[in-house]
Amino acid sequence: MTATAEWASRLSAARPALERASTAELVAGVLRESVIEGSLPPGTRLSEEVIGQALGVSRNTLREAFRLLSHENLLVHEFHRGMFVRRLTAADVADIYRMRRPLETAGLRAAGSAPAEAVREVARRVEEGRAAAEAGDWGGVGTANMRFHGALAALLGSRRVDEAMARVLAELRLAFHAVGEPRPFHEPYLDGNARIAALLAEGKYERAADELLAYLDAAEAQLLATYDERSA
Amino acid sequence: MTATAEWASRLSAARPALERASTAELVAGVLRESVIEGSLPPGTRLSEEVIGQALGVSRNTLREAFRLLSHENLLVHEFHRGMFVRRLTAADVADIYRMRRPLETAGLRAAGSAPAEAVREVARRVEEGRAAAEAGDWGGVGTANMRFHGALAALLGSRRVDEAMARVLAELRLAFHAVGEPRPFHEPYLDGNARIAALLAEGKYERAADELLAYLDAAEAQLLATYDERSA
DNA sequence: ATTGCCGGATTGTTCAACAATCCTTACGTT
DNA sequence: AACGTAAGGATTGTTGAACAATCCGGCAAT
């Protein structure tokens, strides 16, 4: 690689930062992040007046932002009642797992032809989870776990799969916020993550996929057990 | 079931029809349908002024409708240049198939525990395709084919999978509009649909999934071959 | 306890206005 | 002729005001 190509390559890495965004898109990003990290809890009604004043945008712009978020399943629009942060039902949780299984297992099965970097990403996410656990940052463990699972599906190398996974994993965040304390929902899976990553690295893709199915069944059952209590 | 519960049950079947929709949502539906059925071809710029006048809504309402459609991948918003009907690239087409494979094959593999009605739906869609072909309605054959594939993934019984499939199949419509004459892209697959449905009905789920993979590979290759010519 | 009515608050939509941006055209320079 | 620059026009992005439509809560009557 020549010296010119090197700095030009570094320049092009900055290209995403040049993409201007409309105010509506920026507002949507702020709201999305606030929902995902929990400061807007499930059930919260997002008053146009309140949010519009808080963020300093007009009602029309805010409404555009709400519409941008409509399909993400994090907010739900109720006609003439406003916009609400979604409360996930137990059926929603089950449905999320029903979608994750084919995509994540297909990712593992396709790993033989995935780029090495995508495989490395899986191992990296396992390490992130370990590091967060050692630091006692259980929210961070949950985040790393989500990223680990996103990385499994990303082995398919499909932008649409990645987006669909990001969407359901963000939704699952709502479920975790609803059950409260993150530690019991993430800590038990750290070893499972490592086992799956190890099988992946050894080229045992079917074994890894089988292991993942058992893992997902257990994670789902655990979450649903607590969810049923919390919904009562 | 008591007589009261029976008529109450019949009433609740009408509940979806009672759901009011905002003007923005109605406009989004009209635009979506116009894109999917081809009257707004790929590359078309949707002028706020023109569309707003044509549909008799204000610019703000129309902008809300555009934002509603943003995530559906049928329209693409370009900052300060407006809203355009997507032109799919060959890479988009490949990505769509990359997402369909895990979902459709997982549907077939899960068919043993799917409701009988979902399995019947698959056969029904095959018959629709046959009937449309006999009537020489090749656009209708394409529609039935899309529905057939949606029904395969729907064997998973997941709302989220159904929505994701509806989205990528709608996108694929754009590709078919770009290549023109529908007949060569749908007619050759009628027999394949019937074969897959027959294997499904016989409980040979793995065989059906294998057959489907070969079919999807062939369909993708055919579409991409023509797509490369058309993009030149 | 249930039902009906009213008022207030909020959402849904329209309109007008202005700032920001892009594209096209025209003009000047090389 | 080709290129660069500036200006103008058209359109998009945003704001704010206004009004219609809708919902919810409170109160009164049955």
**The CATH top-level class label of the largest domain in chain A:** Mainly Alpha
Largest β sheet strand count, sense and barrel closure of chain A: 3 strands, antiparallel
The helix/strand class of chain A is: mainly alpha
What is the CATH H-level superfamily of the largest domain in chain A? Answer: GntR ligand-binding domain-like
Looking at the overall shape, the CATH architecture of the largest domain in chain A is Up-down Bundle
Topology pattern of chain A, helix = H, strand = E:
HHHEHHEEHHHHHHH
Q: How much strand of chain A?
A: under 5%
**Uncertain stretches of chain A:** none
Rg over alpha carbons of chain A: 20 Å
The percent of residues in helical segments of chain A reads over 70%
Number of strands of chain A: 3
Q: Report strand order across the widest sheet of chain A.
A: 1-3-2
Name the average pLDDT of chain A: 90
Determine the number of helices of chain A (DSSP H or I, runs of at least 4 residues): 12
Oligomerization status of the protein chains: homodimer
Our measurement of the CA-to-CA distance between the termini of chain A, rounded to an integer number of angstroms, reads: 63 Å
- How many structural domains are formed by the residues of chain A? 2
- The CATH topology of the largest domain in chain A is given as Four Helix Bundle (Hemerythrin (Met), subunit A)
Biggest chain-to-chain interface with counts: A-B, 32 and 32 residues
Q: Per the principal axes of the C-alpha atoms, what is the gross shape of chain A?
A: globular
